[in-house]
Design goal:
This protein is mainly alpha-helical and 304 residues long. It has 2 domains: 164 residues, no CATH class; 130 residues. Helices cover 52% and strands 12% of the residues. The strands form 4 sheets. Strands 1-2 form a two-stranded antiparallel ribbon. A two-stranded antiparallel sheet has the order 3-4. Pfam families: AbiJ_NTD4. This is Stationary phase or STEss regulating sigma factor.
Length: 304
């Protein structure tokens, strides 16, 4: 269902990285509803005391499996914790949100195990229904749609895919360039570009950082593609081929030098203590898109 406000104003820009208290509380509420309705009963079945089959989710088994795979999360999932300022006579609770990596792992864990229970016969003595079957694909689709709705409505730049992977959504401009880039002939360049593009859509900031390093390594190799033993002359040939006027050639040279300097100054190509480490996911994507834009242009002039 599309919300009225989205129809009137358009969808919220999905540019946020932070899982807020509202988002976390909403996800916890939804997962608790699924547990109570038996949506995890296929893999964690609560058995009827009379031995007549599954009647719900066995929470202790769900908890054990969850904590084995995501040790930093407890069950029940907490949305509040006790403040350090609490005392023996006054207990103060404050909002709590786990690390975003644990939140994403939780969603993938749930996606792996969720399934819609199909009610069978009613057991009047215990006042519960037995489940005859579970609809796995329908359960996954329902879960995915709900999670992505929460992401979208709160402007979060994440997307849960049918495969169960969660990706970091990219700017439309970067997506367009990635889809239309001229694939280099040289095997190692192709491999480096593929690895970089796979990593930049990861929700983990450290892996996105690796994407930046991969793309700068690609740039350094690309610079020597024409004359492997003379990088300076090779770069000159690359830039000459991409520019049709001296003015634009000058712009390209300034940009190429600036990007090379960024790679050398920041914690991208070198690991000395003096290198500056980039902290923000948005800053990583900005530099990735800037470098990718230059590469996208230069590759158009190479034989495919």
């Amino acid at each position: 269902m599309e919300y009225f406000s989205d129809k009137e104003r358009g969808p919220v820009q999905r540019i946020n990285n932070e899982v807020t208290t509202k988002v976390w509380a909403g996800l916890v509420s939804y997962i608790n509803v699924l547990v109570n309705n038996g949506y995890f009963g296929k893999d964690f079945p609560e058995e009827c005391p009379d031995g007549q089959g599954c009647v719900g989710t066995e929470v202790k088994d769900l908890k054990a499996a969850l904590q084995a795979e995501i040790p930093n999360l407890d069950w029940p999932l907490a949305t509040e914790v006790e403040s350090e300022e609490s005392s023996s006579w006054s207990r103060e609770m404050i909002p709590f949100v786990p690390n975003y990596l644990d939140v994403m792992d939780l969603l993938q864990f749930c996606y792996k195990h969720v399934a819609i229970p199909v009610k069978g016969g009613y057991h009047s003595y215990f006042r519960h229904y037995h489940f005859d079957d579970f609809q796995i694909e329908a359960g996954k689709e329902e879960f995915r749609e709900k999670v992505n709705t929460i992401f979208a409505r709160n402007g979060l730049a994440y997307e849960l895919l049918v495969s169960g992977d969660i990706i970091r959504m990219l700017s439309p401009e970067l997506k367009q360039m990635m889809a239309s880039i001229s694939i280099p002939v040289e095997k190692e360049l192709r491999s480096m570009l593929m690895r970089a593009n796979e990593k930049i859509i990861n929700y983990d900031v450290t892996i996105r950082y690796d994407a930046l390093k991969e793309l700068w390594d690609f740039w350094e190799r690309l610079k020597s593609i024409s004359y492997p033993t003379d990088k300076r002359e090779s770069v000159k040939k690359l830039l000459d081929a991409a520019a049709h006027t001296s003015e634009f050639r000058s712009i390209l040279e300034i940009e190429a030098k600036a990007l090379t300097d960024i790679g050398n100054s920041y914690f991208i190509r070198h690991t000395e203590m003096k290198q500056i480490k980039i902290q923000e996911s948005d800053h990583i994507e900005y530099l990735y898109q800037r470098m990718f834009s230059l590469i996208h242009l230069l590759l158009k002039t190479l034989p495919s």
